[in-house]
Amino acid sequence: MASMASSVELLVGGSGRQVEVALRGPLTIHTVGTLADRMPHVPEGGALTLDLSGVTRLDTAGAWFVVTRTGRCTLEGTTEAMEAVLETVRRALPQPEDRPEPAPRGPAHAVARFGRSVAEAGATARGLTGYLGLFLARLARSLRHPGSFRFTALVHHCEEVGLKAVPIVALMAFLIGIVLAFQGASQLRQFGAEVFVVDLIAVSILRELGILLTAIIVAGRTASAFTAAIGSMKMREEIDAMRTLGLDPATVLFVPRILALLVTLPILGLIANVSGLLGGALMSWLELGISPAMFRTRFVEGTDLGHLTVGMVKAPVFALIIGVIGCHAGMQVGSNAESLGRQTSKAVVAAIFAVIVADALFSVFFAEIGI
Fold first, then answer.
1. Which domain holds residue 49?
2. Is residue 97 in a domain?
């Protein structure tokens, strides 16, 4: 059987389930439109053989027709140029997206997910412990060899971590002192015990809130800054360049940053304590009529120095937690910006969570030993 479609001829032969089709003439964008409806039907389970030896010209439209409209078939009579065009069209065809498998449900999946979370948390804890040990080892080596210690970097990070955080820490503590005095006055006035608001402010600020809220603010500022700085260097392969030059990244990057936190966080805690007491004294004067002189007298007589000691003991521990988590997260950054953002967010959340957990453990410990 023979038929004409513009200037291309379609010849159909074969028998039974074996269908043979031969094309003669140019197979281009001008001729494929009339061929679509003239292709013979191939029975289910049959085979189609397409002979292109008589095709005088083949463009991408003709190749698309051969690739998409004929289904699975055997091609004969193709030249190297035809094969190149057909292969180019095959690669350019959009591939169907695989549908994601539905998420498994049930108790077994919940237990497996919990197990994976526990395993990841354990791996992170081991990594943080390793980085803490690495910092202590490099700090000890720097003390033994003072010439390798980067004092300029330490001063720079003290400015970034400590000095630039003074305004926000002081303002935060001042407002917390005002809130404590106002709320305490509202409650204690019912019992005629307004004077004890001084004790409430002093114990809360010196023992817990001053250093805890300072550490939370520093965790938000500093853990993210450490992760972003170290992670950016890792993305740009600057850390690999340091190793190539014989520089230890732990000594160059970790020691100055964490040591700056150890130096400045206790100072920021003291500033927060002073600001909180000033805010509490101001609100006590305005709300309860407790003069600054009376506030000072009550504060000196009713406040034990142990409350300040308890708060300040926590500062170095909080500094180590924030610094190690920030540096560890920075070293986990991959080669793309998405990884940098993800690790920065994780560092802030992990640092704040770890600080709060550590504060809770300190509170239980000091309560058990009676301090």
1. 2-92
2. no
